[in-house]
Amino acid sequence: MSLIRLSSVSHTFSTATGPLPVLDSLDLSINEGEFTAVVGPSGCGKSTLTRLIAGLLIPDEGEVWLHGERVVSPRSTVGMAFQNPVLLEWRSILKNVMLPLEIVSSGMPAKEQEQRARYLLSLVGLEGFEDKRPSELSGGMRQRASLCRSLVHKPDVVILDEPFGALDAFTREDLWQTMHSLREQEPFTALLITHDLRESVFLADQVIVLSGRPAHAQHVLDVDIPGKRTLEDLYTQKATEMLAELRQQIQIAQGKTAVTP
User: Fold this and answer.
1) CA neighbours closer than 13 Å in the CB half-sphere of residue 106
2) Cα–Cα distance between 14 and 16 in angstroms, integer?
């Protein structure tokens, strides 16, 4: 059953130079428990897509559905993590992770809320850093805390808008593996926006390639890497072929390669 469904979604922004069509008749479906990555040319509407699913934007045309309900307003059952962790310096890491529980009614007693935050921090290797301030942690550690914050209130879906884009290659790969560990312990449905094709293949069950603006779903790749993934999987013949397929689709979206009949 589809947890997230977009049906013929179109959206246009008003700018000083006139209307800017961003999405055009976009159809998209994500099943419960599935990890979907979205890639495409810069400016094609990937972040707009996340705002529509979260209910922060309402499409000009078409419909967005979450758990069988049409999305017409912000959804508290959506967790979000961004490229910038946006942690509050005056709060400890533990209190930063617990912030959504102060905003969203979770039904959890106060003691259980703290236990859950501590549990998530332990899953991502931050046990012992609960009382530190954000400035006392590295960029990768802050991003780990941000991931915990996005999951702490047990959302229906987690939106990840380029959360690893500003990190160095080694830290980024380390966090990819952390994401797999989180999914094993805390199964969730995820939508990842990324420019990194290797990241999309390593993390996702399916990769959706958006066309150039105004964007539609140009191509869908089912990632065929069974079992627990390791970084070595990215160097197999199968992964190489999938990455080549995605690169070709990006070139088509950019207008650099003609569509093969």
Assistant:
1) 24
2) 7
Q: Is 0.85 surpassed by the pTM of this model?
A: yes
Backbone phi, psi, residue 162, to 5°: 50, 50
138, HSE (Cβ side, Cα atoms, 13 Å): 9
pLDDT tens for each residue of 73-125: 888 888 888 888 889 999 999 999 999 988 876 677 788 889 999 999 998 88
> Domain 1-75+158-261: what homologous superfamily?
P-loop containing nucleotide triphosphate hydrolases (3.40.50.300)
> Residue 234 is which amino acid?
L
Are the C-beta atoms of residues 184 and 114 closer than 8 Å to each other? no
Domain residue limits, the chain: 1-75+158-261, 84-155
Task: In whole angstroms, give the CA distance from residue 142 to residue 65.
Answer: 32
pLDDT average, residue stretch 50-66: 92
Q: Are 175 and 164 in contact (CB under 8 A)?
A: yes
